[in-house]
Amino acid sequence: MEALVKALGPIGMVRYLEEYDNGGTGDYTIENYEQPEWSIDDILK
């Protein structure tokens, strides 16, 4: 905690811990490969 406060400040530490606590429920690798492969043209449409 001390290292986080020193590196991020108190507010940054709280934001980091909130993000860390809320995350971790999925599998990045599986989710990454499930994403559709869109071209730039598809995105711009």
Highlighted features:
mainly alpha, 45 residues
Describe this structure in words.
The protein is mostly helical. The protein is built from 3 helices and no strands. The protein has helices spanning 2-22, 28-34, 40-44. The chain is elongated.
Judging from the principal axes of the Cα atoms, what is the shape? elongated
Percent strand: under 5%
Give the oligomer, counting copies of the same chain as homo and different chains as hetero: single chain
Calculate the mean pLDDT score and round it. 80
> Low-confidence spans: pLDDT under 50, at least 5 residues?
none
H-E order = HHH
The CA-CA distance between the termini, in Å, is 46 Å
How many helical elements? 3
Q: Describe the biggest sheet?
A: none
Structural class: mainly alpha
In short:
With 45 residues, the protein is mostly helical.
Topology:
Blueprint: H1 2-22, H2 28-34, H3 40-44
